[in-house]
Amino acid sequence: MNTLVATQLQQAAATDFLPLQGTDYVEFYVGNAKQAAHFYRTAFGFQALAYAGPETGVKDKASYAIRQNKLTFVFTTALRTDNAIADHVYKHGDGVKFLSLRVNDATDAWQQTTSRGAKSFMEPTRLSDADGEVVMSGIHTYGDTVHLFIERNNYNGAFLPGFVAWNTPYYNPTETGLLYVDHCVGNVGWNQMNPWVKFYEEVMGFRNILSFDDNDISTEYSALMSKVMSNGNGYVKFPINEPAEGKKKSQVEEYLDFYNGEGVQHVALATNNIIETVTALRDRGVEFLRVPGSYYDTVLDRVGTIDEDLAPLRELGILIDRDEEGYLLQIFTKPVEDRPTLFFEIIQRKGAKSFGKGNFKALFEALEREQDLRGNL
User: What is the dihedral of CA 110, 111, 114, 117, to 10 degrees?
Assistant: First the structure.
């Protein structure tokens, strides 16, 4: 990101009609919330936080909230058929339903966005318990994905009203150094990237800070296009991908086929020590994409001097890229479910504000090898 873009973001923040404080939580609709929460605690190092279900008076669903530093994930499952959650899981498999954004005023956020054309998901709603009050509202975005606006200025509880503390006497794994959501990527259909860019610009006041076309993101066989949307203060970034013409099926096309529509492709999780974090994740069974070993033969010629020893980066398969403000280290998991849809990125920024353009070719060739193994290339 160059100086001009930084200046534009500063100007945008000064006139931002939808000031966001960052990601409040990410909620997944899943087939079995208890088992999903166990997986993310055991494999990713999240801690048990809160629970809502039949024991707390909720009859149609069960939800488990887990937390690691500023990262909060919620896993929700339907308890009966004839249920929107069950329908979502039947259509998409496990996937992200809510990208919840922290705001100072959830009522104003809803009014600002719906007045600009957003389709309402939830009118401003007040939830309260002994720990205070939370105001929530929400709007629809691409596919079945929803942005919730969460106002918790007057709330002192651990998570949300309606939840109780989830105190488990059983195994609580140590954390793995994951800190917060760096960005969240959505996959949309053919020729839908620009309409959704316009949505984020006009409805939410975001700016398009980076663009990649099929010349930037392509291999011998497939291609895609992407635009990175950022809110005014830069706390929330949503890259949006769409397929591009290629000889074979791109990763975005595969996702759209198996997810049965548009949705969240991956969530990028920040760390301050990617070597320690990825080592811990790998040792707990998280599987990562691998680029050819030859990638490391010339990577320092491209990115220059880095603080880290190259040997552990090579051994773990961590990628490196540089922009004019610094460099970044990143790695991508394999899909975390049986459907080749949702995955995670682990990222450490050493000054860089970009998204690893120099790694695109190696990364997408690695993705294509996995697609080919699945018979979907």
Answer: -140
CB atoms within 10 A of CB 372: 12
Q: Which domains are assigned to the chain?
A: 3-165 (3.10.180.10), 178-374 (3.10.180.10)
Residue pair 110/137 in contact (Cβ under 8 Å)? The answer is: yes
- For residue 267, give the H/E element and its range: strand 263-271
Task: Give rounded-to-5 percent helix, strand, coil for the chain.
Answer: 30, 35, 35
Q: How far apart are CA 44 and CA 286, in angstroms?
A: 8
Residue 249: the pLDDT is 72
- pLDDT tens digits, one per residue of 41-89: 999 999 999 999 999 999 999 999 999 999 999 999 999 999 999 999 9
Report d(CA 316, CA 323) in Å as an integer: 23
Radius of gyration of the chain (CA): 20
Which structure tokens are listed for 195? 């309409």
Range with lowest mean pLDDT among 50-54, 303-307, 344-348, 357-361: 357-361
Q: Quick one: which of 192, 200, 225 has its CA closest to 141?
A: 200
Residue listed under structure tokens 């009014």: 111
Closest CA to 133 of 109, 148, 154: 154
CA distances from 116 to 141, 197, 202 (A): 13, 14, 7
Q: Token pair for residue 186? A: 């959505």
**pLDDT at 15 exceeding the cut of 60:** yes
How many C-beta atoms lie closer than 10 Å to residue 362's C-beta?
18
Q: Half-sphere exposure of residue 284, counting CA atoms within 13 Å on the CB side?
A: 20
* Local structure of 289: helix, strand or coil: coil
* Token reading at 123: 């009118």
d(CA 141, CA 90): 20
State whether residue 251 is helix, strand or coil.
helix
Continuous segment of H or E residues that includes residue 326: strand 326-332
Query: For residues 172 and 177, what is the distance between their CA atoms, to the nearest angstrom?
Result: 15
